[in-house]
Amino acid sequence: MRPRLPSYDHFSVAVGVFVGGCLLALASLVGLPLEEPLGGVALVVALAVWTLLAQVPERVNAMLARRLHVVVGVLSCAPMVVLAANRLVGRLDSSPPLADPSPWVPLGIGVGGVVVAAVGEHRYATHCYETEGIHAIVTTTPRARWRQFLSSLVWGTLGYALVTFALDTASLFGLAAFGVLHAVLNPPSAKDLVVLDSGLLIRDDEDSGGSLTPWRRIRGVDVVDGTLRVRRGLPFPRTYRCDFSEHEEAKRVADAIRRCRRRT
Length: 264
Hints:
Elements: H1 10-29, H2 36-55, H3 57-65, H4 68-76, H5 78-92, H6 104-131, E1 134-139, H7 145-164, H8 169-185, E2 192-196, E3 199-203, E4 211-214, E5 218-224, E6 227-232, E7 238-243, H9 247-263
Antiparallel strand pairs: 1-2, 2-3, 3-4, 5-6, 6-7
Helix pairs in contact: 1-2, 1-6, 4-6, 5-6, 5-7, 7-8
C-alpha cells in the first residue's frame, strides 16, 4: 500500500491532538516536568497518529460505525466524574477528601474526548449520507426560544457543578444570564432530517455533517393534522416537528421512516 499524505480531516486531527494531550496529562500526573522535549514528543505523537489514521480511512469508518468514538467521549469524562465524586465525599464527610487535585487536567481530557466524539459523529454521518440510500429529506419547525434557554441553563448548570461542585446563588444567576444571551444571539433554527438506511441524519444545512441517530433510538413517529412528529429517545430526548401543507405528504415521510425502522 502506497503511503498517503495526511489530509486535513477533522477527526484524524482531533484524535492526534487528543492522544498527544493525554500523553502530556499522564506526564503531569506522574510528576514529570512539562518542558520543551516532552512537548516535542507529544507533538510528534499527535502527527504520527494523524498520519496513521490517514492511511486506513476504511478502517476508521468501520470503527466509527461501531460507535467507538462515542466510547472515547464517555470514557474521557470518567476522570472528571471521579474528581466530582471525591469532592462530594469531602463535603458529606467531616474529614477532608483523599486529594483535591487541580480540575484542569481531567477537564482537558474530558473536553478533548467530547470533541473527538463530536467530530467523529460528523464524519460518520457524512459517510452514511454519501454511501446510503436517501428515502426522504424534510425541514423541521424551529423550536421555541424558551426551550433553547432552558436547555442552555440545564447543560451549563451541570457542567459547572461537575467542574467545581460549588453552586451558589451568584453562579446560578450568571448561568441564567448566559442562557438568555445564548438564546438571543443564537435563535432556534430549522434542521434537516434525512431518512437513511441506518438512521435519521440530523443536520443544520447541506454543508454540515450533522449527527446520525440510529433507528433503535427513534421512539416513535406520528402525523397529526399535517404535522410530522419524530421522537428521539435517550440520552438526548427531543421531538422534531415538521409542518406540511398536505396531510398525505407528511404521511408519506412517516411511512418511509417506519419502513426503515422495521428493516433494522
